[in-house]
Write a sequence for this structure.
């Protein structure tokens, strides 16, 4: 499936370079050109059909109904116990290719291209093929897909929030504005804050540590900026971090009997949501500053 996707990209004008070990005959037929290397030298470069002719010319005819990729690997391998013979065979194949018409044409073309087009010097050493918006859109879409691929995690978070909200609501059920009730409401509000704080910190503490190797590789390849990655990642997870405070407040607020009125409820919801998202940001901070999940 991966090779078929890359094949379609190449047919649209993209250049795709793929390293692969011992592909099946079905995969082998998908390649436009193949490059075979042995002992640090080029043994062949050209189309699969040209490879058959070349190896036949050097005395290594691929048997009928045999996977060409497996055959080329065997021909160009250093066989234990027969190292000298194997290296002599490899040297003969590489020497024959070096003086072939394909190799000479390739060297001539390369020399011409180097003379015609000087090396491009990137501005300040940094270049991006895609615009800031294109980078942001791609990273946001990928991050959103990663959220959608873990529906069980989202369900667990919502169920956990619901159960904790019901538990707190039952413990502080129907408080009255007496001296004891005011102290109980004070404790309930404290639990509102601590639950939103720790739940969201620990939900994001491993986000960046788990993806750090991927991010470092892609950022060094100039695929996207650091800010587009961070914004895309955080915005993709934002809906969940807005839903959790809403579910928690909608259950616990009326059960405890906090101040009646729609505006008072939304004031409470706004504060709980802000606390949750500040905690989320703090979790991101720890995640970015830590080298591993265990350290975080």
């Amino acid at each position: 499936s991966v090779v078929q996707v890359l094949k379609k990209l190449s047919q649209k004008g993209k250049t795709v370079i793929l390293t692969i070990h011992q592909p099946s005959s079905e995969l082998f037929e998908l390649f436009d050109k193949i490059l075979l290397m042995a002992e640090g030298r080029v043994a062949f470069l050209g189309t699969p059909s040209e490879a058959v002719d070349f190896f036949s010319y050097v005395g290594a005819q691929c048997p009928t109904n045999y996977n060409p990729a497996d055959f080329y690997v065997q021909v160009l391998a250093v066989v234990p116990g027969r190292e000298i013979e194997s290296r002599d065979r490899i040297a003969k194949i590489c020497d024959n290719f070096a003086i072939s018409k394909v190799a000479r044409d390739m060297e001539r073309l390369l020399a011409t291209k180097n003379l015609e087009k000087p090396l491009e010097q990137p501005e300040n050493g940094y270049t991006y093929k895609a615009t800031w918006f294109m980078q942001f859109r791609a990273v946001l879409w990928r991050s959103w897909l990663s959220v959608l691929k873990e529906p069980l995690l989202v369900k667990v978070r919502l169920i956990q929030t619901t159960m904790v909200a019901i538990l707190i609501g039952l413990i502080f059920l129907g408080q009255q504005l007496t001296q004891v009730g005011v102290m109980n409401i004070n404790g309930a509000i404290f639990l509102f804050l601590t639950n939103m704080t720790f739940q969201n910190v620990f939900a994001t503490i491993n986000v960046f540590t788990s993806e750090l190797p991927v991010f470092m590789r892609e950022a060094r390849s100039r695929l996207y900026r650091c800010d587009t990655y961070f914004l895309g990642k955080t915005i993709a997870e934002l809906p969940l971090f807005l839903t959790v405070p809403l579910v928690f407040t909608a259950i616990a607020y009326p059960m405890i009997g906090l101040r009646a009125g729609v505006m008072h409820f939304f004031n409470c919801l706004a504060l709980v949501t802000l606390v949750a998202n500040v905690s989320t940001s703090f979790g991101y901070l720890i995640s970015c500053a830590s080298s591993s999940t265990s350290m975080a």
About this structure: The first helix runs from residue 2 to 11. DSSP finds twelve helices and two strands in the chain. The longest strand covers residues 41-46. Residues 132-289 form one domain.
